[in-house]
């Protein structure tokens, strides 16, 4: 029975890997790696915590309790809870830049490919992608999956994030958490996608975009 269970697990693992390879080879879909998920989620958490920076003092306790506890909002559990509840929605603001191969492919700005497409349309060039233009800027399959990956990451690592938050915070959240929970963290040394400029996308004399099926980020 143990041997059968082991074989079943191996076959399921191979099947999942095979599906991922097919998606990448045929459709150019490449989901975020474990390192990329940690990098992007911790970045988003840090940014949202900074956005919630406040000198406000809040009171906690029951309404009938005359001795309510006063706590600085910046070190309160409320600030952390609010951040973790909102953080994964921020993943939907990312876009895939398929002209890049490392973690900089994730950036909160339109890819060079789609900037060129929009520019062509603005110049009156007819562009056929097989999808309505109003869907061009919708989150891609990778981005939608990134939100799901974010939710799983937060659930699995909430304790580590909380420990950093209520601690001395001598290191950044990313350095403190990712280097502990991610086996391969090479992507942490790479810049963020927003910090990198994409090279111009080539066009021919007619203004048609030179592209392949794998360049489409919204399939």
From TrEMBL:
Q: Where is this region: Disordered?
A: 189-219
| Residue ranges annotated for the DUF3456 domain, each copy included | 34-187
Q: Which keywords are on file for this protein?
A: Signal
Give the range the annotation lists for the signal sequence: 1-18
List the Pfam families: DUF3456
Q: Basic and acidic residues bias located where? A: 205-219
* Coiled-coil boundaries: none
Q: Which InterPro entries match?
A: DUF3456
Which family does the record claim for this protein?
Belongs to the canopy family.
Descriptive protein name: DUF3456 domain-containing protein
State the organism named in the record. Answer: Scylla olivacea
């Amino acid at each position: 029975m143990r041997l059968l269970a082991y074989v079943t697990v191996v076959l399921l693992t191979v099947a999942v890997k095979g599906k991922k390879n097919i998606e990448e080879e045929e459709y150019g879909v490449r989901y975020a790696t474990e390192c990329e998920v940690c990098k992007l989620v911790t970045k988003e958490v840090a940014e949202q915590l900074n956005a919630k920076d406040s000198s406000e003092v809040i009171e906690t306790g029951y309404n009938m309790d005359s001795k309510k506890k006063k706590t600085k909002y910046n070190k309160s559990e409320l600030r952390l809870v609010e951040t973790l509840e909102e953080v994964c929605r921020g993943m939907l603001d990312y876009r895939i830049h398929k002209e890049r191969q490392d973690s900089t492919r994730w950036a909160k700005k339109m890819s060079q490919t789609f900037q060129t497409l929009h520019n062509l349309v603005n110049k009156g060039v007819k562009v056929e992608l097989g999808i309505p233009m109003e869907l061009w800027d919708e989150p891609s399959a990778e981005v939608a999956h990134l939100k799901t990956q974010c939710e799983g990451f937060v659930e699995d690592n909430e304790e580590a994030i909380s420990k950093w938050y209520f601690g001395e915070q001598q290191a950044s959240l990313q350095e403190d958490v990712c280097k502990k929970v991610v086996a391969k963290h090479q992507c942490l040394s790479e810049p963020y996608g927003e910090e990198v400029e994409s090279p111009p996308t080539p066009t021919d004399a007619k203004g048609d975009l030179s592209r392949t099926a794998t360049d489409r980020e919204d399939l």
